[in-house]
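Re: [ENG-882] Designed sequences occasionally contain unexpected residues at chain ends

Forwarding the minimal case from QA. Structure tokens:
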């Protein structure tokens, strides 16, 4: 049963007052509390955007997500596990504290689209107004995307080539681009911090493709109106846990995301108000109007820090290579020095031995000369005493050559 106009007005007024009345986080705390990536379109809650842009220029979010949609049309009664998941890959970047822009691949086909946001008004602790942003989604190759991003597909020609086609149920969707406005108010509560967001959008938030209740059986507050909140805690200085809940304009969703040093893992339940799959919910009951499970894996960082890190790692690698070359050169020179020292020791040892041999030869020659002198002196003495000596044996001439 749809909400009446008076009820919608009351809800909108209540939410607007809540956005103004909630005490705002101090500016520095706002800057420190990064948002996780949504399932398909950069930072936000689960599926909806928030009025927030990172104050650090160059911050990026990379995420891959999967939504479990085990639809079985005729001839597809035994889908394998991979075919039951509609996957998404997205990159979101933030610049100048005011602008974010990103790109998504919606599925394995793939379809694609750009998204972006401008933060028109920032939160301030001493001012009563919330942050306000305007943005767009699904600026891409498929005008007929639905909220689950399965409106466009591919088909195979007889030649085996592929071509883009629009699913028969999605021909009346016109969602490229989708534009929106959103307001966000931050607050502290206990040991954690949180925020509440309220917005209105066209296209993906508003267009039901003329499918009526077949597209959305229940859960809608008002066409185009979306809202949600998060509560986050920091178990450690390098980790954060985000608890998320929202209405994305069609359904109620909830999830939890854990983040450690920029690496995040999330699990979500979407279309929670719908319960289980039932054929009584229309001909597209295999696609819409039943609770689904989604998973996400992501990384957040800063391109400047990454580039500096890459430069430093490159410089460190270069220095390590230079150090290794120097160590190898030092080792080679040490080896050469050791060889030269060994040769020197051998040369010194050879020279000493040769000197010793020459010394022995000289000493022997000297001794021979002394002996000859002594014999001559003895003969001279006998002659002076008048004693004719017996004829001494002739002294053989020295045959020893003096060393050179």
């Amino acid at each position: 049963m749809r909400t009446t106009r008076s009820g919608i007005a009351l809800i909108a007024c209540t939410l607007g007052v809540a956005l103004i009345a909630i005490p705002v986080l101090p500016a520095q705390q706002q800057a420190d509390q990064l948002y996780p990536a949504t399932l398909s379109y950069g930072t936000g809650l689960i599926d909806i955007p928030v009025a927030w842009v990172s104050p650090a220029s160059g911050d990026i979010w990379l995420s891959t997500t999967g939504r479990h949609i085990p639809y079985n049309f005729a001839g597809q009664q035994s889908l394998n596990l991979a075919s039951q998941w509609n996957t998404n890959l997205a990159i979101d970047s933030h610049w100048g504290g005011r602008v974010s822009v990103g790109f998504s691949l919606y599925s394995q086909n793939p379809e694609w689209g750009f998204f972006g946001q401008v933060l028109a008004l920032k939160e301030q602790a001493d001012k009563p107004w919330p942050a306000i942003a305007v943005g767009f989604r699904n600026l891409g190759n498929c005008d007929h995307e639905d909220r689950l991003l399965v409106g466009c597909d591919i088909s195979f020609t007889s030649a085996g080539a592929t071509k883009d086609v629009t699913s028969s149920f999605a021909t009346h969707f016109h969602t490229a681009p989708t534009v929106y406005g959103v307001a966000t108010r931050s607050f502290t509560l206990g040991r954690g911090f949180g925020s509440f967001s309220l917005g209105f959008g066209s296209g993906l938030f508003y267009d039901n493709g003329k499918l009526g209740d077949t597209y959305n059986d229940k859960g809608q507050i008002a066409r185009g109106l979306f809202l949600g909140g998060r509560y986050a805690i920091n178990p450690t200085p390098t980790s954060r846990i985000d608890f998320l809940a929202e209405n994305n304009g069609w359904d109620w969703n909830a999830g939890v995301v854990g983040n450690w040093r920029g690496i995040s893992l999330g699990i979500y339940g979407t279309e929670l108000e719908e319960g289980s799959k039932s054929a009584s919910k229309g001909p597209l009951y295999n696609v819409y109007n039943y609770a689904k499970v989604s998973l996400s894996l992501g990384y957040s960082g800063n391109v400047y820090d990454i580039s500096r890190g890459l430069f430093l790692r490159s410089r460190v690698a270069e220095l390590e290579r230079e150090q290794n070359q120097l160590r190898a050169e030092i080792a080679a020179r040490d080896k050469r020095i050791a060889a030269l020292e060994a040769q020197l020791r051998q040369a010194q040892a050879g020279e000493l031995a040769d000197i010793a041999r020459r010394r022995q030869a000289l000493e022997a020659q000297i001794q021979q000369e002394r002996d000859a002198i002594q014999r001559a002196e003895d003969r001279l003495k006998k002659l002076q005493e008048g004693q004719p000596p017996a004829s001494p044996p002739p002294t053989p001439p020295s045959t020893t050559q003096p060393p050179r």
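QA comment: On inspection the terminal residues look reasonable. Confidence is low (pLDDT under 50) at residues 1-11, 73-79. Proposing we downgrade this to a documentation issue.
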